[in-house]
């Protein structure tokens, strides 16, 4: 014999709430990580500089980005230290 289980609206609502909690928990660390690292366009916007000026900061060693998939990522702490 095959056992049939019925799913109620309450069961679906509990599942939905659990999924939302799980997603929120999983995404929170990534949000923090993304805030610590910013892409070139955001750095240029923050510093109000051109792409060439940003390249000069890299060449002079004032900013040490990580290159991932063709994009540079900069630590916000390094950007803040430029003003100290």
UniProtKB/TrEMBL annotation:
Superkingdom to which the source organism belongs: Bacteria
Question: Per its UniProt record, what InterPro entries does this chain match?
Answer: HTH_17 (IPR041657)
Its name, as the record gives it, is: Helix-turn-helix domain-containing protein
Name its species: Belliella kenyensis
Q: Which residues form the Helix-turn-helix domain?
A: 37-81
